[in-house]
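Why show two proteins at once? Because comparison is the fastest way to build intuition. When a single record is shown, students tend to memorize it. When two are placed side by side, the eye starts asking what differs. So, the first record is below.
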Amino acid sequence: MNKQFRNEYHRLIANLHQTNSFIFNYFGQKLAPFDLSVQQYIVLRHLSEGYPNSLTAGELKEKMNDLNPDMTRLVDRLVAKNLIVREIDPQNRRRVNLRLTEESKQFVETAAAHFADFESIVSHLTDEEVSTLNTLLNKIRNR
């Protein structure tokens, strides 16, 4: 065993972290031409799934797998880029809805086209390996 790891469990955690960084950087490079971060893209994708309907920041946060608590700053950046709009809910004035514009919906579709083959990052794995890996990752998260 490599001396930098205390044991195989330590090596596993380091390996998971390194793999997460690899995937995150891979998607970051694909998004660079669109001037988007991975988190911004995920927000846009969630809003595009329900387009033309809107979501509140709380509803959006529930849909995201990211535990980043700073949804306000993320939304502010997308508003500044004119990719989403904030609207006061006519039924409840305390509620603020987030929505894509028609132009930003088309922008998201263009960016999404660059991810049509996003599975290619793991396409060299066999079906059995993918199934086993999915099972093990689920087991880690659902201990």
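Second record. Ask yourself what differs from the first in the token line.
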Amino acid sequence: MYKLYGTVRSRAFRVLWMLEELGEPYELIEAGPHHPEVLALNTSGKIPVLVDGDAVITDSSAMLTYLADKHGKLTSPAGTVDRAHQDALTHTLLDEFDSILWTAARHNMKYLPKEHQMPEIAASSKWEFERNLGRLADRFSGPFLQGDSFTIADIVATHCLNWALVADFPVSDKTLRSYAKEMREREGFKRAFAHLKD
């Protein structure tokens, strides 16, 4: 059984959703950043952390790739052109969506020391996010990001789109808003989201 350390309101959700889609048994250990149990596994204190037997894996995108490859699902096979396209898309999402959302959050949610906070960075972050969203919309043909196959790229994209909506970032493209809504209707997403506590 996998053990996942993290919270639903973090990137751990991506891994929760992945595990639900795979139908693999797991235990969620609710632990925030720098929790003693997390620090014992990851000296940076960052979440999520995935434990598989004696192996400890950090970074949510690494976890998604590991799980997809191990179980042969939600991914194109390694060494194929389709996999190269999938990896390129996933890395683009991490670079052009996740990193922008996280930069804004660090300044607006006081993750940084006060003397290094620049809340005004949100305006340029929102502009850049929407520009990148337009680029993604231009290449979207549906029903999933890579056509007919639901992959880890869809998990990352949906998580970022949902994060953007909660953070009041512009998600004006109707096609991608509809896409995100459809992804939230997946049973795996619903089961993962059910872990959220009030």
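One difference worth noting in the second protein: The mean pLDDT is 94.
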